Input
Amino acid sequence: MRTRAVYRLATVLTKSQLRGNQRGRIFTRWLSKPYTILVVDVSLICVLGFLGYAAFSSYLPPDFTSALQGTEIQGLTAIPTATSFAVILLGILGELSQSIQSSNTDLVNWLPISPSEYVAGSTLSLAYTYSFLPSLFLGASLGPAIFFGQPNVWLASAIMSAVSLLIGACVVEMLRSITNRISSSFYKRSGRSGIIVRLGLTILVLVFFQLLFSGQIIVYVLHAIVQTVEAVWFIPVVWPSLAVQTASEGLLLPLLFALLSLAFTSVLFGLAVNFRTRYWIPVPVSIKINSKPYQPTSTKIGIPGVTSAESAIFRKDLRSLTRRREMARFLAIPFVLAASMAISLSQISTASGSANLAATIPLYLIPIAVFCEVLSMTSIGQEGQAVWNIYAAPIEPKQLLKAKMLLTTLLGIAFTFAMLIAITFFVSPSASDIALLLCLGFIVVLEEASFGLYVATKFPDFRETVRSRYVTIWGSMIGMFLGIVIALVTATPILLEAFFSGLTIELTAATFFVGVIICLVSWKVTMRQAKLMFENIQI
Amino acid sequence: MDLLQVNNVSKGFGELKAVTDVSFSVESREVVGLLGPNGSGKSTMMKLTVGVLKPDAGTIQMLGSDVASNPTNAKMNVGFVPESPRLYEFLTGIEYLDFVAELYGLDRTVKQDRISEFLKALDLEGRENELIHGYSQGMKQKLAIIAAMLHRPKILVLDEPLNALDPKSARIVKELIHKFRDEGVPTIFSTHVLEIAEAICDRLIIMYQGRIIAEGTAEQLKTKAGSTGSTLEEVFLKLTGTSDTREIVEALWR
Output
């Protein structure tokens, strides 16, 4: 294996990973170099360590610090295993959100690189990319470790975390090869049903991932690792943690587990090389959707006022949403938001109806607003380089906007119903409150769909990268912020009902008036922006 | 009769002047070849012609109507294949063609008949229900060509349409272009393969650095360049100021 080739390849793959995420000049120019990543990691550890030590020695009350004594070892023990899991999860998430065009390794097929060099380079690049995770964990634990006189255990944790980082990276590398091959064979045989299964599984993984990274669950997982690490000593992925846990019990056990961890890493590397050798060139997937002879689809989708061209764009976008792997992240949003809302709602008291409604409205509206805003503001950019099909077609900007808005509105309304069912389950609102929430939900769906389209036409991003954004960073920031503000402004009159209970009808009317005004203004500015977009093609 | 009239058109992208003061016209029953080295402004000129781009100066009249002020009308009359067309890869071939046909408002029966005929002619029958993602480059190119011809346009604008096509399909496309010409539908056609240009086109326009530097039949261009009896390639290299290619190769070999 040529180490120089491995290093160069790792650098290139890291650059590709970071530039694919379009994180700006700092990331693309500076942080894509391995040694600068290392410097940043060490600096992160030092800064966090210094802050932690300062907090423990000067600012935190002695009762608090003494209560933490003993848990420090547990925390340091958890870091290596947590690192492996986090890298594997992030790796899977990265693979899932990657567009199909970017998910192959075409370039290396004709370059003089051996499978082992490729796997080593790719593993190293994954380690570079995700090295911020153990750095964060280790930085946060350095101060307390020094304060409690456990620097040697911290050092053991740092070394084993580096090994765990490589374990996680090797697993991701194996998964990449396997999933490429399995998915190819699976789709070839299953066709349309395979796509549905893939969509369902992808959404499930994304939802699992998002929920896992909520604060409460992280604490639970870390605690579980520490509790069970000894009981599951036979599982290789916890060996690095066991090396840390036994660090204060002499040299033999930690050395044994450290050596076992290294051996396990080597085995994983060997397996990854083996898989890559076997599945080196990704098989082009040809998925047959239908075996029946061609029958043209009906020209309209059956909604009054929707032309055949608008219906065609609507149907195309619906297929895009359900067939493109990278689109699953958008479909996962409602599930994640609904789960977060359910957790929050379960904590709300059901004692007073009015107070409940006031507390429920933001919890109900913000997920709807976020979902519709995200769908809408990415709807133009997701055309990608194929947008020329739209530009070259004899359609007016208004027709494109109508079709895009229709899809967001229909999905938004479906989500509104789902949210309302969840709310009814948790809060048991009155019939009039349900009607009010339903109308409010519809208004917000329309507002976000039309305002989102303004952002989509003003800040479209048609670039097709490893993880395409479809809307510029500025656009997404502005869109998300103003989207939530719009939802809250619309709901403000109705929220004031808690203070002016005699003015229910007037406040309800004011809410809908505000909603209608926002919809009309958004639609008007979006139309103007869409015309400008059509005149200044960005491909 | 001029179906297309381009008058003093200019287009820039920031500092870059892609097209400068270009004028030409296209009559019915002719195939016009747009030639030029990479970056000479051919693709920009084609996008301007079909109303995808708006000129900074000058006018383009298509069938008597101004393209810039009524681009939708122009697009309805044009069949356009861009250079390396990107298609919606999550659609099947048939879904893509169905989508395009609906954008042009084709009747259901007409749509079905034409799509079936084209698929058969270009050897895509049997693969039409597969996702475009699994298609070869040539198959994607064929789909783009079918999509451009499906609505029986009044003008065809094809930017390197024969790229990646197999010989049989390339021949069919050439025959189709001539068939359209015989029916009064002109084609503006760009290619880097000068033998193809000479064989297909009735008239050639050579662009260089955003301007038209020569226009006429292949024979007229040879006469203009003072190279009667030489190949179109030699005329092209002479007109575009390319120095001795042998010297370049020798320099590379050193």
Q: What stands out?
A: Chain A touches chain B through 43 residues (CB under 8 Å). Chain A has a mean pLDDT of 80. The two ends of chain A are 42 Å apart (CA to CA).
